[in-house]
Amino acid sequence: MRGVSKHFPGVRALHDITFDVYAGEVHGLVGENGAGKSTLMGVASGALVATEGEVHIDSDPMSGDPDRARELGLAIVRQEPALMPDLSVAENLFLGMPHAKRPSLSALNTWARGLLKHWSEDVTIDPRDHVSTLNPEQRFIVEIVKALECEPKVLVLDEPTEHLASEDVERLFERVRAVTARGAAVIYISHRIREVQAIANRLTVLRDGEGQGTFDARNMSEDQIVSLIVGGDLDRTFPAKASEASTRTVLSTRGFSGPGFSNVNLDIRAGEILGLAGIDANGQREFMRALAGIHRGSGDVTLLGKPISIRNSQGAKRHGIAYLPGDRHREGIFPELSIRENFSIRSPQEDAALGLIRSGSEQRRTVDAIRQFAVKTPHGETPIQSLSGGNQQKVVLSSVLAAKPQVLLVDEPTQGVDVGARAEIYRSIRETARSGVAVIVVSSDAQEVAGLSDHVAIFSRGRVVDMLSGDDVTEDRITSSVLKSTEQRDRHHRPVAAFWKWAASNSAPLVMVAAAILFLGAVAGMWNPFYLSPRSLTGMMTFAATLALVAYGQQFLMMVSGIDLSVGPTMGLCQVVGSFFLLQELGPGSHVAGWVLLLLVAMAVGVVNWILVEGLRMHPMVATLATFMAVQAISLILRPVPGGMIDGDVMMALSMKVGIVPVTFIAAVLLALVLEFWLYRREMGVSMRGLGSRQEAARTAGIRPKLARFVAYVGCSFLAGLAAITMIAQVGIGDPRAGLTYTLGSIAAVVIGGASLFGGRGSFVGALLGAIFITQVNSVTVFLRLSQEWQQYLLGFLILASVALYSKSREKVVQA
User: Fold this and answer.
1) Contact 334/377 with Cβ under 8 angstroms?
2) What's the CA gap between 452 and 236, in Å, rounded?
3) What is the 3-state secondary structure (H, E, C) of 438-499?
């Protein structure tokens, strides 16, 4: 890398970095949080494009394209594994390989099992499991295996041991030595100096986006490396710390554990600030959020000597625990509301009388807060989103303190705040502590933690590994303690019950819906024998075929996190177009033109939707709602009233049967099987599922989002056109309103069949079963002489039941 710089809006992440890695060496890359290590490797891997400078791999120039980097022989293991959660382990490994190394999808699981065995003979990862069901350690192993099996020229490992148990750390080191033994290069990024020195030949230090030099890893002491990483002196903008220790413990935890942390024992006294420090994602932030009730924790928590239970954020608030979130934009402010509303929203009880808000009290408290916290604004009615980041943060802090907490939890107090505002925020936090409140602060800036805190708890891999107090609370000591930690993660993970693992699988919705179809059919058949008559079954299959075809189109889009509200009007427009050409008095040439034009019109709607969503960046629901109205308007212009009788021969051809089974239903079943095979056994299908599961990971794997979405939108409309053809046999005339009910019906069918509205999950066979079930419900209510409301009751119940089961199962496997 030569002269590499990278600028983001308002931020210089890298400046003039020159970085060499030799064949056969392990090159360590170290620095504090935010030093630029991951950004530098993002440029190297093609995920980011350098503002200036150039990158060469084995003398070949690199461009900002992950596919190009992979072709040149670079593989990267990221801090957050680039895996697609709704795909199986095997499918993730498949998409992570260069095209030349990908096996046949028919032998995918056997191939993947062999790769995992290369890592360890006793590996417990099943290649058929969805990545979402894996624990953090298993996800990292999959990511490492994926990178190693590419046999790269350059292997980048970004914090690879954070989630590995000790035996897997040693196993990783063995694999790294094997990589360099065959002449490849390894870049090893870690905050853990001892690990870097144990594995690296040379190391480069980054600080604030600039290189501090490259050194022989074994010829430097830990303290020398730490000094290079930290650099500079502590900025003296912090208020004086507590002059004398308090003896009153406000909050105490014993054996407190939760997602990301375990067995934390801490005491926080009145008037003091306890800082939590450590490498990101080592449990300190998770511990604080559990105290705030955002995550569930287990263990003993006492407040002023009394045991308390924190089940949710409302419970924490009732106990007097207030939380200042680190993500100001997503969790801190309400951007569309005024300063007054943002300030009072966390303490409405202070302004309430007889259940009503007293506007005078609210205005007075807001003015006092603006004055006390020196918020730069003309008045309290100013929209908070118009303020600077520092002033927004001061409003949020004043809002949290207005609730008069006994414990204040502060996450990243000055993130995105300028230097001037920082000093004022530090002063406010210290004054809050002096008033007797116990304060806990989490910050990724060691200088900030050192300057604010009276005591500092060092977290590593989910545990408190050191406690600093008094003169030991310095930036150097904090950084040194963090970097020198040798704590290893436990290999203890909560098992998931077999039922919940099954419920989170792709097969569960199919089994559920099939069982519901059989049960409902048996009940209706016993109640009214005519329900199972050939005429009744033929009618149901005819209507189910049409709904299934349009549902397949909807499934295409939901797979890539899209939705199409315009499918119903598109079906109506296609039928209207056909009603001008498929007439008895016109010849075969006109009929052929009508069929072709019908499908071209359908696909044109898909292209328009794709342009609105992908080109104009409109939300899919907004874009396709606009198309819904436009297409329906065109249909009404062409046929203000129904007209144009379809040729009887065409009607007869579309109504053909094999026994009692309509040909259209047979075609719908066969198409579902073909599309299901394509979805799970063809590269394009797996790629589309990956895109919907996690777009950034899919892009890193070389999937092109725009092309995949184009296929999805045009495919959806094409299938709506096919559904319109089958509908012709049922309507027989050009009716612009004929397809309107199919929009919601198609969405319901794919949801009942197991699709996720967030993308990445679904089944065409499931969509077929969903369509059959919906048609069956509509028929059963007639045969059982139930009111129309029962159609909605039955459909609504199954939709709620299936979505609830899916959501609960995902929650169970993700939390394990």
Assistant:
1) no
2) 11
3) EEEEECCCHHHHHHHCCEEEEEECCEEEEEEEHHHCCHHHHHHHHHCCCCCCCCCCCCCCHH
- 530 SS3 class: helix
Q: CA 429, CA 414: separation in Å to the nearest integer?
A: 11
How is residue 281 written in tokens? 């994602």
Q: Give the separation between CA 632 and CA 635, rounded to whole angstroms.
A: 5
Q: Please state, in angstroms and rounded to a whole number, the distance separating the CA atoms of residues 34 and 74.
A: 23
Q: CB 587: neighbour CB atoms within 10 A?
A: 8
pTM of the predicted protein model: 0.75
CA–CA separation, 182 and 175 (whole Å): 11
The edge-to-edge listing of strands for the beta sheet with 52-54 is 11-17, 2-8, 52-54
What values do phi and psi take at 147, rounded to 5?
-70, -45
- Say how many residues make up the chain: 816
Q: Contact, 301 vs 291, CB < 8 A?
A: yes
pLDDT in tens, 157-207: 988 886 776 678 888 999 999 999 999 999 999 877 878 998 999 999 998
Task: State residue 484 phi and psi, 5-degree precision.
Answer: -90, 0
Tell me which of 341 and 387 has the higher pLDDT. Answer: 341
Q: At residue 16, what are phi and psi to the nearest 5 degrees?
A: 50, 55
Tokens of 463: 């545990």
Write the CB contacts of 452 (distance below 8 Å, at least 6 apart in sequence). Answer: 238, 273, 275, 413, 426, 429, 430, 441, 443
Q: How far apart are CA 154 and CA 73, in angstroms?
A: 6
Angle between helices 419-434 and 389-401 (to 10 degrees): 10
Question: In angstroms, rounded to a whole number, what is the distance separating the alpha carbons of residues 3 and 465?
Answer: 39
Hey, what amino acid is at 471? D
Torsion, Cα of 155, 159, 165, 169 (10° steps): 40
In which region does residue 192 sit, left (phi positive, over 0), alpha (psi from -120 to 50) or beta (all else)? Answer: beta
Give burial (CB, 10 Å; 0-12/13-18/19+) of 800: exposed
Q: Residue 33 in contact with residue 190, Cβ under 8 Å?
A: no
Please report which confidence band the pLDDT of residue 353 belongs to, taking 50, 70 and 90 as the band edges.
confident
What one-character-per-residue DSSP string does 378-433 give?
S-TTSBGGGS-HHHHHHHHHHHHHTT--SEEEEESTTTT--HHHHHHHHHHHHHHH
Going along the chain from its start, the domains and CATH numbers come out as 2-230 (3.40.50.300), 234-320+406-488 (3.40.50.300), 335-404 (no CATH), 508-815 (1.10.3470)
Rounded to an integer, what distance in angstroms lies between the CA atom of residue 295 and that of residue 311?
Answer: 8
In sequence order, which residues have a C-beta less than 8 Å from that of residue 792 and are 6 or more positions away?
none
Q: What single letter denotes the amino acid at residue 776?
A: Q
Place of tokens 């308390």: 308
If one counts every other C-beta atom within 10 angstroms of the C-beta of residue 157, the result is: 26
Q: How far apart are CA 686 and CA 679, in angstroms?
A: 6
Distance CA 7, CA 36 (A): 11
417-427 confidence digits (pLDDT tens): 554 567 788 88
Q: What is the distance, to the nearest Å, from the Cα of residue 318 to the centroid of all Cα atoms in its chain? A: 31
State residue 199's pLDDT score: 93
Q: Encoding tokens for residue 338?
A: 């005024």
Q: Please, are residues 504 and 810 in contact by the beta-carbon 8 Å criterion? A: yes
- If DSSP codes are grouped into helix, strand and coil, which group holds residue 274? strand
- Please give the full DSSP string across 663-726, using - where no structure is assigned: HHHHHHHHHHHHHHHHHHHSHHHHHHHHHHH-HHHHHHTT--HHHHHHHHHHHHHHHHHHHHHH
CB 136 within 8 A of CB 165: no
Which 3 state secondary structure label does DSSP give 219? Answer: helix
